[in-house]
Specification:
Layout lengths: L3 H17 L9 H14 L4 E6 L5 E3 L2 E2 L6 H7 L7 E10 L5 E8 L4 H7 L4 H7 L6 E3 H6 L9 E3 L17 H11 L2 E8 L2 E8 L11 E2 L2 H10 L4 H24 L6 H14 L4 E2 L4 E4 L20 E6 L1 E3 L2 E2 L2 E6 L6 H19 L7 H18 L6 H5 L28 E4 L2 E4 L12 E4 L2 E4 L6 E2 L8 H7 L16
């Protein structure tokens, strides 16, 4: 059993190595991840085992993959960022053939000097033990060759397979092989059932002729247990999530200063993402949305291909991901720096709706509460402006919900219950009036969404993204400031 002193030494070594290599030193610690595993274990039913798989590597084109991103649950519990890995957590202590006690196992990709020359260093077994703090770590091939006897447990907990992985002929212990081995160990078989136009995958728990006991699998409990853990953010998580939110807010501020009518949607996207990188954000938390004019009426518009934003309103929904944690911040601003009368009326209506939604983001309420509060303001306002005659007509212009959780996922897992302290949600009402809508043409092409990230506390909601102006007059004031990017002139390629 590793002592506290040993674990502290591992932590110090990891921080020192990162500092020497010029890497960030504010990653979540191995103690954090261990604490999350312990918290999950405490919630698991007695005599059960939970099995987690790393995310698949996903192909982009030919021999090029997308940038790898770890499964959020796997990262939450391990800190491991590589593919082709398995985590096994036992509800109760186990004993190996040498009399050693253990309650978790981590199987990782094997060290491979040639592969590492192409795709970077691998932690291997030694790194999993020394840097991630695991007492027992093995290569993935051990999971395949030796396996585990799952018949001794009352239930095996795991999420449904995503079935988006490929079999690499160059790796005998890739995710495909690990999952196939697991299926064999629990006697998992798939039968395709076709009924009408619906195709389901049926899980058969058949008795393996080589075993005396049927393995009982559970595809529901683990999802709920992880949702219950992840919906409440720890102090360590809040440090990273708050930084991701502040980075995103700073991106919005810099774009407000840099915006002019000659910009393209892609250029606006680029400024946001440049600011993200400048502050150390590794990725965007989701595809960036920059929609000018009628493009803003497409809720998940990601083409960002309009060449000039002219005098449009520009809806910008972007979130930085910092060390795994993702913000979600939206601002809508006039490209020319000033809202026209129609734009301002719609914008201020959405702002008032958001204020009502934020006020409802208190302990004991839920996402339905913030939605109802915001929706009532929007519906009443649209009817007053003559855009809709009643609530049913108004609904077409506000077609999405008002709140969702954020964290390791932009739409973070949760139990969909009452708000509790240290939950972080969005409040994001919107009004979208596409061209051709059944209302006065002067409203056509106006799309406004204002989205902020809100921390639920005992003392009421805290807007974490407040550094990005929300009021229409504050936006117009900031857009008068000079941008440091204004002096950047690139050679003409025409």
């Amino acid at each position: 059993m590793k002592t506290t002193v040993q674990l502290l030494c591992f932590l110090f070594l990891s921080i020192s190595m990162n500092a020497q290599n010029g890497l960030p030193t504010d990653y979540l610690s191995s103690e954090f991840h261990k604490g999350r595993r312990d918290a999950l274990r405490a919630k698991m039913p007695k005599n059960t085992v939970a099995v987690f798989f790393a995310n698949a590597e996903r192909n982009r084109a030919n021999d090029v993959n997308y940038v790898y991103h770890q499964d959020p649950d796997f990262y939450y519990l391990t800190g491991y960022k590589e593919p082709n890995a398995v985590l096994v957590i036992f509800s109760d202590d186990q004993t190996d053939e040498h009399g050693e006690s253990y309650n978790e196992l981590l199987y990782v990709q094997k060290k491979n000097e040639l592969a590492e020359q192409w795709t970077g260093k691998r932690l291997g077994i030694e790194g999993a033990e020394q840097r991630l703090g695991f007492k027992m770590a093995f290569n993935g091939e051990d999971f395949i060759k030796k396996g585990l006897n799952f018949t001794t447990f009352d239930a095996v907990l795991f999420d449904e397979f995503k079935n988006d992985y490929r079999d690499s002929k160059r790796d005998d212990a890739d995710l495909y092989d690990l999952i196939q081995a697991f299926k064999s160990q629990i006697n998992y078989t798939e039968t395709t059932v076709v009924s009408g136009d619906k195709m389901d995958v049926e899980l058969n728990q058949n008795t393996n002729m080589l075993q005396e006991k049927t393995v009982t699998v559970d595809n529901e409990t683990l999802t709920k247990l992880m949702a219950g853990l992840r919906e409440i953010k720890t102090d360590d998580e809040m440090v990273l999530l708050t930084k991701a939110v502040r980075i995103s807010a700073m991106g919005q501020r810099e774009v407000m200063k840099a915006m002019h009518v000659g910009m393209s949607e892609a250029e606006i996207q680029g400024i946001h993402e440049y600011v993200f990188k400048k502050y150390g954000s590794e990725y965007e938390g989701y595809p960036s949305i920059v929609g000018a004019g009628n493009n803003g009426c497409v809720l998940h518009y990601i083409e960002n291909s309009k060449i000039k934003v002219d005098n449009d309103l520009v809806l910008m929904d972007l979130g930085a991901e910092y060390h795994g944690y993702t913000a979600d911040v939206t601002r809508t601003i006039p490209a020319n720096g000033t809202f026209n009368p129609e734009q301002k009326r719609i914008y201020d209506l959405v702002y008032n709706a958001q204020e009502a939604g934020i006020a409802a983001a208190v302990i004991g309420n839920n996402s339905g509460s913030t939605d109802t509060a915001a929706r009532n303001v929007v519906y009443e306002g649209l009817i007053a402006l003559g855009i809709a005659k009643n609530d049913d007509e108004a609904r077409r212009y506000f077609p999405h919900g008002t709140s969702h959780h954020i964290g390791l996922d932009v739409h973070d897992t949760n139990l969909r219950g009452a708000f509790k302290p240290n939950m972080v949600i969005t409040v994001e009402p919107g009004i979208y009036i596409p061209e051709g809508s059944p209302c006065d043409k002067k409203w056509w092409g106006i799309a406004v969404r204002i989205e902020d990230d809100v921390l639920i506390t005992e003392n009421g909601p805290i807007v974490l993204s407040a550094e990005a102006p929300r009021k229409s007059e504050d936006i117009e004031a900031l857009m008068k400031d000079t941008s440091p990017l204004g002096s950047l002139q690139l050679p003409d390629l025409d």
